Amino acid sequence: MQIRTASPEDADKLLEIYRPHIENSTTSFEYEVPSVQDFQQRIQAILPNYPYLVSIENDHILGYAYAHPYGERKAYQWSSEVSVYIGKDAQGKGVGRRLYETIEDILKQQNVVNVTACVTSENENSIAFHQHMGYEITAKFDDIGFKNGKWIGTYWLKKVIGRQAATQAEKPQQEPAPFIPFSKLI
């Protein structure tokens, strides 16, 4: 299994993996499958600043993961949100773990301190996966999205991957190292 940076040319294969999460489940809160062109634009929008990775075996894309800003304000620059989607035939084979280990290593190089994930409350496998990867549930929002005829909640999970500034009680806090865009690392 190899992991490489995604490209817009991967969009159609990534959509094959993502489509069931939209059409057949509440894993994604999207209602309609994006076009290949829209998905290409999403990849292009993320890559300058954050990693967007694919896992490949025998020229077949098994899954993908990407990071993006946790929030728009400057104070959030050391926090990122991550997402992972694995093809049905590749689930349970360590693909998600390898993608997350790689993306977290890259985010550390970018001076990201906190990584978050938002998981729908019905996606128990993803919640368990994140907890296995060291993420802790930090928030739950009941009935926050409506899909497939019902209200669904979300869990926010968080993992500290970088050096946190000391608490005020210990010593004065110091600003973390500046965020480094992904394009500066590759």
Automatic annotation (TrEMBL):
InterPro entries: Acyl_CoA_acyltransferase, GNAT_dom. PROSITE patterns: GNAT (PS51186). Residues 1-162 form the N-acetyltransferase domain. This is N-acetyltransferase. It comes from Fructobacillus broussonetiae.
